Amino acid sequence: MRMIVIGGGIIGCLTACRLRQQGADVTLIERGELGREASWAGAGILCPIQPWLYPDAFTELVQHSLNLYPSLQAELFDRTAIDIEWQRCGLVIPFFGDEPHWQAAIGWSQRFGWRIEQQEAAEALRAEPTLAATVQRALYWPQVAQLRNPRLLKAVQRWMVQLGVAVRSHTEVRRLLVEGGVIRGVELDDGGHLTGDRVLLAAGSWSDSLLQPLGKGLTIRPVKGQIVLLVTKPGTVRHIVKHDDIYLVPRADGRLLVGATMEDVGFRGGNTVAEVHGLLDGVMRMFPGLAACEIERQWMGFRPGSPDGLPFLGAIEGVAGLFVASGHYRNGVALAPVTAQCMAELMLDQPPSVDLAPFSPSRMVDFSNGLGYN
Ligand SMILES: Cc1cc2nc3c(=O)[nH]c(=O)nc-3n(C[C@H](O)[C@H](O)[C@H](O)COP(=O)(O)OP(=O)(O)OC[C@H]3O[C@@H](n4cnc5c(N)ncnc54)[C@H](O)[C@@H]3O)c2cc1C
Q1: Chosen domain end from 259, 277, 305
Q2: Same structural domain, 227 and 353
Q3: What's the gap in Å between 11 CA and the centre of ligand 1?
Q4: What Rg do the C-alpha atoms of the chain give, in angstroms?
Q5: CB of residue 310 inside a 6 A radius of ligand 1
Q6: Best of 331, 343, 371, 373 to mutate for ligand 1, by most ligand atoms within 8 A of CB?
Q7: pLDDT tens for residues 196-238?
Q8: Is the previous residue joined to 57 through a cis bond, with omega within 30 degrees of 0?
């Protein structure tokens, strides 16, 4: 059976690897360079922001995915000698006043078996000495991990080629070819056709543009996120620290990511004064001692936003052989291992390791649950 994967982000590339590992004939098509969009731009935090707000099925999907990371990391290192810098650095949420979520966060952690520690101000400052002294208390999750996205992508791309996936970069899919309710392949930007029995749409924020002409749009749309990269001495910030809409992610070499905005501005790219100012203002409030840090660079990416914050994983009803894995929104790196595993299983007619019904493209989307882009 001939498989086509559209999109060379983390979702498309890792799924192509899993399909190929099971012996499928796989071609992956990417319109630009592999892995240069959202998957490259993300912060690499392996835990949803405020997971207690999500339905239980989402937590279960995330947990399954995160449990796959240690073996994926080892597998990638073994095959490619690239260290993706997966590390359990822990995550801290400082509280400076009466912010909500304290009880909800503890309740969720206990229910799902995530280790959590409640810290008084002195303890929080011992753990994170450069935090603003106005901190009153903090919650600390020691098991939360991070990785470096560009390294993950480089490793997965190298592995994909080793496995024998046929990669066609700088080639855009213009149209899905459907005949009598069955997928036949794709039309490319040079007018050529590529035939396939199964097609996976993993085109991130751009996925809907290929589904809409079939009347199958899923209302996936871009949510822009800007990030600023600071240079610090290694160990200045020791954990991922999150407060309000801002998080800091310390890399092992001292680089410190500050992210990320949430902007509904279509595909308008670039970094902007107001949003970068907002991020840096958050740094100054949380870590005033970082005022003299050098700014190395800034960038942005388009999260594939979904209306209820949940990904779309599964078959497209009414088009036999067409599958989608998109709309991962703020959690695509965390969810990549389980997505690749389950989508490969589905496309090879095997039962998926996790029940994907809550993420079906045909589900009743709850547009008002407050987790999506609206
Ligand atoms: C600022 C920011 C911070 C983030 N932080 C985190 C985080 O900490 N943790 C986390 O888990 N997630 C995070 N995310 C979200 C995560 O990055 C995304 O959910 C994930 O990368 C989506 O992967 P993808 O492969 O679906 O999309 P993408 O990486 O965008 O890949 C889609 C690919 O499809 C290609 N494509 C599109 N149309 C076509 C076509 N017609 N033909 C051929 N190719 C096409 C595109 O060029 C692109 O390369 C963050 C995202 C951003 C932007």
Answers
A1: 305
A2: no
A3: 8
A4: 21
A5: no
A6: 331
A7: 999 999 999 999 999 999 999 999 999 999 999 999 999 999 9
A8: no
User: For atom 25 of ligand 1, which residue has the closest CA?
Assistant: 9
Beta bridge partners of 326: 312
43 lines ligand 1 (CB under 6 A): yes
pLDDT digits (tens, 9 = 90+) for 169-182: 999 999 999 999 99
Question: 336 near 35, Cβ under 8 Å?
Answer: no
Say if residue 233 is in the same domain as residue 289: yes
In the chain, which ranges are continuous DSSP H helix?
Answer: 10-21, 38-41, 56-80, 102-112, 121-127, 149-163, 207-211, 273-286, 336-347
Tokens of 55: 């339905």
Answer whether 0.90 is exceeded by the pTM: yes
- Tell me the CA–centroid distance for residue 9 and ligand 1, in Å: 6
Determine the residue of 199, 248, 328 to mutate for testing ligand 1's pocket, defined as the one with the most ligand atoms within 8 A of the Cβ atom: 328
